[in-house]
Amino acid sequence: MVARVFSAGLNGIDGYIVTVECLLSNGLPRLDVVGLPTGAVAEAGERVRAAVKACSFDWPVSRITVNLAPADTRKAGTAYDLPILLSILAAAGQIDPLPQDAMFLGELSLTGMLRPVCGALSMALAARDAGFRTVYVPVQNAQEASYAAGITVLPVQDLPALLAHLSGRALLAPCPPPEPPPLPDGTLDFCHVMGQHAVKRALEIAAAGGHNVLLSGPPGSGKSMMAKRFSTILPPLSDSERLEVIRVWSAVGRGQEAVGHAARPFRAPHHTTSAAALTGGCGTGSRLPTPGEISLAHRGVLFLDELPEFRRDVLEALRQPLEDGRVTISRVAGQVTYPAQFQLIAAMNPCRCGWYGTERCTCSPASVQQYLRRLSGPLLDRIDLQVAVQPVEYAALAARGQAVEESSAAIRARVLAARAVQYQRQGADVCNATLSPARLAECCPLSEEASRMFGAAFDRLGLTARAHDRVLRMARTIADLAGCPVIGPEHLAEALQYRTLDRAVNS
Questions:
Q1: Matching fold, domains 2-166 and 190-434
Q2: Radius of gyration of the chain from Cα atoms?
Q3: Dihedral sign of CA atoms 270, 293, 297, 481 in order
Q4: Which CATH architecture is the domain 190-434 placed in?
Q5: HSE (CB half, 13 Å, CA atoms) of 292?
Q6: How far apart, in whole angstroms, are the C-alpha atoms of residue 194 and residue 393?
């Protein structure tokens, strides 16, 4: 008799259905798991054997063959522990046949307790799309799996509780629909930033249009402080965006953490980070690469402090994801694509000593140029706003507690109004920074005076075709903040002033 139980696997952040088949046959007692299992799956036999005995079942004294279909797809992770155990017990006749409209996920402890697995939400979505009605998951995965609307999610604490439910003795309670996570506590707010109104304006433009920003200024001028508060003026995640974020974080076993965050992701890797850690790695041997920092920042912010201190290969790895909004990683084990649509906020000193432009600078002009050339022209070409941050004046610091700075809520209100205009014009969740070249002429009309100004500036500033489109998108955002349907010369002039550092680097 062949017992069949349904489970799921994970390829990138996409789930797929796995059929677990078990056959008991004559021969020396042993357990064979076939279907391209990785080490974690092959070791499931020892965990399953211990869990069976701990729950007072008899281990079959026969040859046990477990097949994970499709057999030509590599299976990784520990989610197959529970379905393997259930298929063995069903094949041995110790439990009734399992329902064929249900899917089972979970890692087993040696005592029969269920432990969380990676990718529960993506697997639940795959089950729903395949027509399954119920998915059984560990308790710790229930909240993230409940974001898969249209399928019943049943949280399981341990094996005895699951078998009691399947036999009808004690039914499990379905996981309720997800509730909105609590709002941030307001610890980070732009009202704490004294002065720096020009930089705040640039960050408001970036938030309104989804543009990338590079802040360049001396130490202590507030670059990192403002970057860490940038997410407080961004629009809240839409339902579809939240689903994408949870799926990415779930793929690395952090889905529960993503469920509990109301704000957009904010990632700030250290400058010693490797290229594999940034784009995605750990794809050695038989395991596919896991999401890196740029994917964990999907729909959020990637903050790179001390940008020139990152290795050259790490910075150049950003070029393709910044352009395409996704990253494709190829390893021996296979190829996988992860979403990587993030906003880049970078900070740097203007020179090695950090005080270029002031009397305190000790760097020679050649040393300054050498430091700036750590950033390649193609990378700077993809950064929309290049903002010079000036030192904070003493008067601004002395006014702390007396002067009232604009709060994040006030800035966010203007950002939301500008985003609403963009979504109405371009479609849901399509901000100006992601506007396709085919729609630039339609969505970014220039006045005659602005058109003449742009033509003169294009040659004078040496803009590339990419920089031309990015300036146009940025001017569209500035016009949206001003409530103007047509881009005027004042909007274009403000956008052009943010393209200064790339000329300094290439001079």
A1: no
A2: 27
A3: positive
A4: 3-Layer(aba) Sandwich (3.40)
A5: 26
A6: 9
pLDDT tens digits, one per residue of 165-174: 999 999 999 9
Contact 136, 105 (CB under 8 A): yes
DSSP 362-431: ---HHHHHHHHTTS-HHHHHT-SEEEEPPPPPHHHHHTBTTB-PPPHHHHHHHHHHHHHHHHHHH-TT--
Give the whole-angstrom CA distance, residue 454 versus residue 181: 45
Cα-Cα-Cα-Cα torsion 165, 168, 171, 172, nearest 10 degrees, comes to 20
2-166 CATH choice from 3.30.230.10, 3.40.190.10, 3.40.109.10, 3.40.50.300: 3.30.230.10
For tokens 């904070």, the residue is 392
Largest CA distance in the chain: 87
Output DSSP code: residue 109: P
Tell me if 243 sits within 8 A of 14, measured CB to CB: no
Nearest residue to 143 (alpha-carbon basis) of 168, 109, 177: 177
For 229-242, what is the HEC assignment? CHHHHCCCCCHHHH
> Any idea what DSSP says for residue 341?
-
DSSP state of 448: H
CB 17 within 8 A of CB 127: yes
- Tell me the two tokens of residue 10: 């994970």
The pTM of this model reads 0.91
Nearest C-alpha neighbor of 10 from the set 77, 70, 68, 66: 77
Per-residue model confidence as pLDDT tens digits over 492-501: 999 999 987 7
Q: Cα separation of 121 and 135, whole Å? A: 10
Domain limits of the chain? 2-166, 190-434
Beta partners for 158? 113
Paired tokens of 83: 């379905």
Element (H, E) at 64: strand 63-69
Say what the pLDDT of residue 310 is: 95
Tell me the pLDDT tens digit for each residue of 112-138. 999 999 999 999 999 999 999 999 999
The CA distances from residue 264 to 43, 226, 243, 276, in Å, are 37, 16, 12, 23
DSSP string of 84-146?
A: HHHHHHHHTTSSPPPPTTEEE--EEPTTSBEE--TTHHHHHHHHHHTT--EEEEEGGGHHHHT
pLDDT digits (tens, 9 = 90+) for 354-405: 888 778 888 988 888 888 888 988 898 899 999 999 888 777 777 777 777 8
3-class state of residue 266 by DSSP: strand
- Bridge partners (DSSP) of residue 214 are 346, 386
CA distance 240 to 419: 16
Instruction: Please give the Cα distance from 214 to 389 (Å, whole number).
Output: 10
Spatial separation of the C-alpha atoms in residues 423 and 428, rounded to whole Å = 5
pLDDT in the model for residue 285: 46
Token output for 443? 């969505």
